[in-house]
UniProtKB/TrEMBL annotation:
Keyword Transferase belongs to the record: yes
Residue ranges of every copy of the Carbohydrate kinase PfkB domain listed in the record: 2-305
Pathway annotation from the record: Purine metabolism; AMP biosynthesis via salvage pathway; AMP from adenosine: step 1/1
Keywords: ATP-binding, Kinase, Magnesium, Nucleotide-binding, Purine salvage, Transferase
Gene Ontology biological process terms, A to Z: AMP salvage; purine nucleobase metabolic process; purine ribonucleoside salvage
List of catalytic residues: 266
Annotated catalysed reactions: adenosine + ATP = AMP + ADP + H(+)
EC number of the protein: 2.7.1.20
Cofactor needs: Mg(2+)
Protein name: Adenosine kinase
Protein species of origin: Brassica carinata
Length: 311
């Protein structure tokens, strides 16, 4: 069966994709790995409880695996557990080291803002000083994002998001635009950046110019200037702030050492944030991001060695 998937892309599963998950299990030696951004900043920080994570899972074996892996990693997870839907899964197809993601959101699509408002959960928001929300969450609970971004703005905290996928920029443009004024750091890759540019009618594919334009979009507060960080695979990382662009080289990796690129973007963000929370300079944040993503792409799936070797 043809599933119409493309390399270096991320899509939401449609009905035609649903048989693919069983087909993968039957025909290939499939690895099952707990997903989510939560592991990346913790692995670099190595401080139990320093990061907290909220999302939605089902009451099934995959949900239990998510809780078990997150807790073992030292992450403070507060999941909303949906009793009527299975835990979300993401099919990762890898060819020549390049990945394609097909996400069947299931319970991940069922997060309720009421869960965020519970005192024990909102206490985590109040305690935090930095926030990161994946762009994918725009499709799930914009109300939750609104509460967090407005809290961050009101208390001079750092709010960050990711463009996450071309379809987010294209089909969820309106809700994304409502968040942009609150974003102090915007992450993305070159494909997402170019889609963002096209959707906004900027008529340029120049990643450096796009990064500058994103950084100069209106801000809700003047506490922090917006910084745009665009990764480009093996090409330099583009960082735009104050109307200027700097490019930072990535760590060279011989092609024979590339296992798969799944998780590279999340790993970069996790590494970047691990230094940002310590008040480090941008070049140190980028260097940490490049290190974390370099480690991940040499392994199968979103996995790490026990501890980082990063100075």
């Amino acid at each position: 069966m043809l599933y119409d998937i493309k390399l270096n892309n991320a899509i939401l599963a449609e009905d035609k994709h649903l048989p693919m998950y069983d087909e993968m299990s039957e025909k290939f030696n499939v690895e099952y790995i707990a997903g989510g951004i939560f592991i990346h900043p913790f692995w670099m920080l190595q401080i139990p409880g320093a990061t907290s994570y909220m999302g939605s899972i089902g009451k099934d074996k995959y949900g239990e695996a998510m809780k078990k892996d997150a807790t073992a990693a030292g992450v403070n997870v507060h999941y909303y557990e949906d009793e009527s839907t299975s835990t979300g899964t993401c099919g990762v197809c890898v060819l020549g080291g390049e990945r394609s993601l097909i996400a069947n959101l299931s319970a991940a699509n069922c997060y309720k803002v009421e869960h965020l408002k519970k005192p024990e959960n909102w206490a985590l928001v109040e305690k935090a000083k930095f926030y990161y929300i994946a762009g994918f969450f725009l499709t799930v609970s914009p109300e939750s994002i609104q509460l967090v971004r407005e809290h961050a703005a009101a208390h001079n905290k750092v709010f960050t998001m990711n463009l996450s996928a071309p379809f987010i920029c294209e089909f969820f443009k309106d809700v994304q635009e409502k968040c942009l004024p609150y974003m102090d750091y915007v992450f993305g890759n070159e494909t997402e950046a170019r889609t963002f540019s096209r959707v906004h009618g900027w008529e340029t594919d120049d990643v450096e110019q796009i990064a500058i334009k994103i950084s100069q979009l209106p801000k809700a507060t003047g506490t922090y200037k917006r910084t745009t960080v665009i990764t480009q695979g093996a090409d330099p990382v583009v960082v735009a702030e104050d109307g200027k662009v700097k490019k930072y080289p990535v760590i060279h990796l011989p092609k024979e050492k590339l296992v798969d690129t799944n998780g590279a973007g999340d790993a970069f963000v996790g590494g970047f944030l691990s230094q940002l929370v310590h008040g480090k300079a941008i070049e140190d944040c980028v260097r940490a991001g490049c290190y974390a993503s370099n480690v991940v792409i040499q392994r199968s799936g979103c996995t790490y060695p026990q501890k980082p070797d990063f100075n």
